[in-house]
Amino acid sequence: MKRVAVVVFPGSNCDADTLDAARAAGADAYYVWHTDTDLQQADVVVLPGGFSYGDYLRSGAIARFSRIMAAVADHARGGGPVLGICNGFQILCEAGLLPGALMRNAGLKFLSRPVRVRVETTDTPFTRAYAVGDELVLPVAHGDGRYAAEARTLAELSANDQVVWRYVGENPNGSVDDIAGVCNTGRNVVGIMPHPERRNASVLGGLDGARVFLSMEARNATQPAGDVHAVGGRHLRV
Amino acid sequence: MAAFRVEIRVMPRASLLDPQGQAVEHALHALGFADAGQVRVGKHLVLDVTAANAAEATARARTMCDRLLANPVTEDYHVAVEARP
Q1: Cβ-based contacts of B23 with chain A (< 8 Å)
Q2: Hey, what domains does chain A have and what are their CATH numbers?
Q3: Pick the catalytic residue: A94, A120, A197, A217?
Q4: Do B74 and A104 touch (CB under 8 A)?
Q5: Domain extent at residue B6
Q6: Number of domains into which chain B is organized
Q7: Which pTM was predicted?
Q8: CA distances from A152 to A100, A106, A149, B4 (A)
Q9: Residue B30 phi/psi, 5° resolution?
Q10: Where are the beta strands (DSSP E) in A39-162?
Q11: Which position among A14, A86, A93, A183 bears the catalytic label?
């Protein structure tokens, strides 16, 4: 059982769903407040979605200087898995733990609806329970979801297999190369704009996101987690 | 030490799509300002800095931009410093 720290910033609003999704996958998940300095021996750190500090200045720009972020950066530099979802992805980019940046949606509108993404690599702590090419339906809920990076960075992402998810069928926000999620060169820090924690139960409309959390528990990268079944609102690996 | 008024202009990098600028441009055209073009929307920050001289105030402001006020991936900035009366 992995110890999963869900960091709560002022303005986080997906923290409870994320905690629940991690627990449903069998993790020992708990909250860590942004003013804390200790991750309490976390195996995995998740930065949840929301609107930390009201998205002032730029989404994630203020949260990256939270006191807890020094511990998150240490954890990441030590090879510890870190997942940023939506605002968490924005914070990781602002913190320099992931390459690139997330800008205003090309269509300017805030988007809140399901989109289709494809798993591009299973060589991360959060996708190892998927297969490359798996197509998932996951909800997006963001105003600043347009992934942008310099040409050199994009070439490196491609060369190093660092694009983790791509939008398929439709690119909702104008992200370059249809990028919906990336990882760092060490592959332990991962960011995704759509919300896997909102698709981990049939009652939520699907199970496509559950394996992001089950992947944390998987013992190695080559062993698939198997089918996921909702049992009494919880999910068991069978 | 002296007080300086620092004005910082942060603009989306010219090579990147600026959908806000495009929307404002379309609105200007709809109002009949057909002569408006290449509209871009950025941020303007104004702050006071205490420093030994204008060069030091400028250097401090640039450090602030590099660390927080501008995103080096997507934005460029311009710093203007003047002595406060």
Answers
A1: 108
A2: 3-237 (3.40.50.880)
A3: A197
A4: no
A5: 2-83
A6: 1
A7: 0.91
A8: 11, 22, 8, 38
A9: -65, -30
A10: 44-47, 82-85, 101-103, 111-119, 135-142, 146-148
A11: A86
A-contacting residues in B 42-61 (Cβ below 8 Å): none
Chain-chain contact of B74 with A108 (C-beta, under 8 angstroms): no
Is position A195 annotated as part of the catalytic site?
A: yes
- Decide if A37 contacts A67 (C-beta within 8 A): yes
Q: Is the ipTM of this complex over 0.85?
A: yes
Under an 8 A CB cutoff, do B19 and A105 touch? yes
Q: B4: which strand partners?
A: B49, B83
Paired tokens of A128: 């190892």
User: What confidence tens digit (pLDDT) does each residue in A184-235 have?
Assistant: 999 999 999 999 999 998 888 889 999 999 999 764 333 334 444 443 444 4
Which H or E element spans position B25?
A: helix B19-30
| Nearest C-alpha neighbor of B79 from the set B47, B51, B52 | B47
**Rounded to an integer, what distance in angstroms lies between the CA atom of residue A113 and that of residue A139?**
5
The CATH number given to whatever domain includes residue B46 is 3.30.1280.10
Q: Is B19 on the interface with A (CB under 8 A)?
A: yes
Tally C-beta pairs within 8 A across A and B.
Answer: 34
How confident is the model over A104-139, as pLDDT tens digits? Answer: 999 999 999 999 999 999 999 999 999 999 999 999
Is residue A86 flagged as an active site residue? yes
For chain A, where are the alpha helices, taking DSSP H only? 15-24, 68-77, 87-94, 151-159, 210-217
Residue B20 near chain A (CB below 8 Å)? yes
Q: Indicate yes or no: CB of B16 within 8 angstroms of CB of A103.
A: yes
